[in-house]
Amino acid sequence: MGGAVLRGSREPLLPMSPALLVSASPAPMNTFVVGQDSRGRWVAVEIHGRGGGLFRDRQAAFHYACVETGRRPDAVLVSGERIELRT
Q1: What's the CA gap between 19 and 2, in Å, rounded?
Q2: What's the pTM?
Q3: Backbone phi, then psi, for 52, in 5-degree steps?
Q4: How far is the CA of 60 from the CAs of 12, 73, 74, in angstroms?
Q5: How many CB atoms lie within 10 A of CB 33?
């Protein structure tokens, strides 16, 4: 007989398929910079240009950036330099 048979069964066991290792790549970690543009407006900008906006004040810009980054403590930088939101 050509293969193993499970005790109490007449059906031969089939060879098991090799396990597939699946690794999920981690979600990209967003980092935002908060500061003012050349007109004095508050801006929050994702460093790779994937998001951002203009805000009424620093607190609103900082809040937006914190929410977008999952409140990671190292993910929001406040700039003393002028920053521009590219459109």
Answers
A1: 24
A2: 0.66
A3: 150, 180
A4: 67, 17, 18
A5: 18
